Amino acid sequence: MALLSELGTEIAIPVCAVVGIAFSLLQWLIVSRVKVTPDRHAPPPSSNAKNGYSDYLIEEEEGINDQNVVVKCAEIQNAISEGATSFLFTEYQYVGVFMFAFAILIFLFLGSVKGFSTKNQPCTYDQEKLCKPALATAFFSTVSFLLGAITSVLSGFLGMKIATYANARTTLEARKGVGKAFITAFRSGAVMGFLLAANGLLFLYIAINLFKLYYGDDWEGLFEAITGYGLGGSSMALFGRVGGGIYTKAADVGADLVGKVERNIPEDDPRNPAVIADNVGDNVGDIAGMGSDLFGSYAESSCAALVVASISSFGINHDFTAMCYPLLISSMGILVCLITTLFATDFFEIKAVNDIEPALKRQLIISTVLMTVGIAIVSWVALPSSFTIYNFGVQKVVKNWITAMHTEYYTSNAYSPVQDVADSCRTGAATNVIFGLALGYKSVIIPIFAIAISYLFGTLGMLSTIATGLAIDAYGPISDNAGGIAEMAGMSHRIRERTDALDAAGNTTAAIGKGFAIGSAALVSLALFGAFVSRAAISTVDVLTPKVFIGLIVGAMLPYWFSAMTMKSVGSAALKMVEEVRRQFNTIPGLMEGHAKPDYATCVKISTDASIKEMIPPGALVMLTLVIVAYTSSFVGMETLLSVETLSGVVWLVPSFLAGASEHARSLGPKGSEPHKAAVIGDTIGDPLKDTSGPSLNILIKLMAVESLVFAPFFATHGGLLFKIF
């Protein structure tokens, strides 16, 4: 038996979740002390102030009235926030219709397994015992799906509101020094990270306990129903990632191609009609989309572990503490991330630009080291001395930093791979693109070996430090927005240099976050696949049979079909954006001279309308392919589709994530020079890959895996229609 009692488990998990929520609210309170309203009666400087929150400005702005700057920053912040909120509400209206339609489908499919019978049935793994009816599983799976979907939507929306709340505050803090701005951006990212991790843990724990009131000792049925939580989270994340990615890249391409290349104006120049849409896109794509994505990974990994545990000796012996081992790991992760965050915000001070990247890297290293110790402690107190897992072995825990650090090497301008791509800009955009593609393909090697080795040691620990991972990832778009606001508000070049330094570090941390997402997607998918195989009791597969071969071919093709759809969607939306930006530059008198104001709203509407329209076909492809293959081919064909689709998707998404341009290109020529234009074109080509197709592929491989787990009973009963006919 475990050292930790059942009562101790019931107390520890919700307490850790509440601690995480309280810590996020504390960070929010500290950030809110940075005012975005003019204050003509500010208190005098205080030599004892920590982090500069009661400091007066260290330096005066050059030729700009300070109060006017604050007002401009507030106006720009409101415009970005309103645009992001409007887009998400529009997106959620369409997604809400899908959510309820798919919930009905879940109930009908799972309820039909036993003809909507309300009688108890023999348990799958112990025929002598009776388990709850299939109709109950259908109902509770539907409820957990809706709960997961709502939590995913909430995660993305809260992340967006936090980011748009913090962007102008980061800009204003940059007047006091780069350290103050860094702390503001990182605290804001921590708010999002801890809220998501704590809410996900708390909601899942509450759902388990409520379902337990009905299921009692039927662990198999309870955790089979709870898998809907992961399906709901990933379903909403898919639309958030695809829709947000199309939005942000359509605006980005339009702003860069016309503004930087054709008109030779700086990035985030207020004369550019697409500049507000571009900054809105950072929040709906990189913040809301990433929040929903990582929440989906967290929910799916927890559900996969719970399903495997429910059919192990834990479930047979009704060991509640051991059953909740995945949730205890997440609880420990919140405490570890809390301590890790203090190293960035309180224990060390950022005094210079060169201190930023090391501070962010320390977050990864410290959280990994502390979590390794934390996992050992949880394993010691929560797991029995020996146990078995049905048709598997004993799983151990994986370390979570290899893939993330690798992407940092391949995307940071401090290292030779990106510098080589930048040097290729000297001969034009074509060689830049060729070098970039080669770099992306080469970058596949190390992550694949790392993921393969990691899977030997299990998957439970991958997302335990999700709060730190999200804090680092959210820091990037917040800093990017801060630089855009500084440019649009007309702040001095010294302030813009500081925000550019934050943005440069943010680009690297965004790559680290994407590496984190790559590793989590691969390992979560494998964990879900393992749970599916255990649930389906599949032992061997003959790849030479027609029904299996169909799954192999279709599975290998899916990531490419999906990527083609998302890339074309970005291209179609970007085409409309480029035409609109050109039209405004050509028809609005005085726009280039700064005497007239561009029509920002039209560009925002173009991105919104295009992304909502274009996100539906890729979403339908993912959600319906698995159902069609399983229903027409076979249960085993679905298994092979999942395995090959996961492998093909992981290999393809690594180079997709690592496409982009380099700040190193600046050394080859100033902005507006031919090498700079070549770098911008290369960046424009790579952006849809790394910000739309790549992130969406994460969800593709996870979503299909969890979908198979939820619908496993239905596919086992009704699958293989085509081969039954012939």
Automatic annotation (TrEMBL):
Keywords: Ion transport, Magnesium, Membrane, Translocase, Transmembrane, Transmembrane helix, Transport. It holds the Pfam family H_PPase. It comes from the Eukaryota. Coiled coil: none annotated. It is found in: Endomembrane system. GO terms for molecular function: diphosphate hydrolysis-driven proton transmembrane transporter activity; inorganic diphosphate phosphatase activity. The chain crosses the membrane at residues 12-31, 94-113, 133-160, 181-208, 320-343, 364-383, 444-463, 516-538, 544-562, 620-638. GO terms for cellular component: endomembrane system; membrane. The keyword Electron transport does not apply. It is a multi-pass membrane protein. Its EC number is 7.1.3.1. This is H(+)-exporting diphosphatase. It comes from Fagus sylvatica (Beechnut).
